[in-house]
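explain this:
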Amino acid sequence: MRRYRCPAVAFSGGRDSTFLLWALKRAGVGRVLAVTVDFPYIPRRVIAASEEVARLIGVDHVIVRDEEVMEEREVRWNGPLRCYFCKRRMMSLVRSVAEREGCDAVLDGTNVSDLSEDRPGLRALKEMEVRSPLVEAGISEMYIVSLLKDLKLPYLAETCMLTRLPIGEEVNLELVRKVEVLEDIILQVGVSLVRTRLQGDGVRIEVPPKDMGRILEARATILEAARSSGFRTVTLDLQGYGGSKLAAQD
């Protein structure tokens, strides 16, 4: 890490980029810059968390808002390659900030466990010449989870809201925001993670199996919130988060 004078890290507030920021700070790098790209389909809780975590670690933090990403056809229509186009645009914005701030590298938090998954965004990282120090060091997801737990550093297990929408349908940002608000309410009942997928005129809720009891206890609250947003049906996926093919793509 010490080879860098001022690395700019694409920072989502998630597990891997949080670990990378901590490692850079621990290595004594002179200036570490966290850059969070704020697209319209990024949950507000993610942006708030990125600010808090950057402050806790003690690094400079820049948030870049970009509404024009919706002009990308593959993103606007939630196409199968949306992650590639989204990641490419994101890294272009991070690189612009890095150049403006005089940084000498653009880094991201990809780890070796990610390489075994089908992630179109990885191709964009290579094309944009973004370095992934955790891959270079052979660091896995299990190691990162264990260390962050010991360090008691908070992070969010989140993905963009486009993962809640059917592939190939035009993105309705008003609908996306309604799903986000519903997830915020569900998180308030004490679940550790939630994905609320659009399904016809309703939603399908996915939470870890251990949290299903909390959903049932808060059934009335969740139903009221969902119906006030216009969702006619509300279902709970008994497979739990990660049990379905769609969830595995998050």
User: Anything to note?
Assistant: Residues 7-151 form a domain with the Rossmann fold fold (CATH 3.40.50.620). The chain has a mean pLDDT of 92.
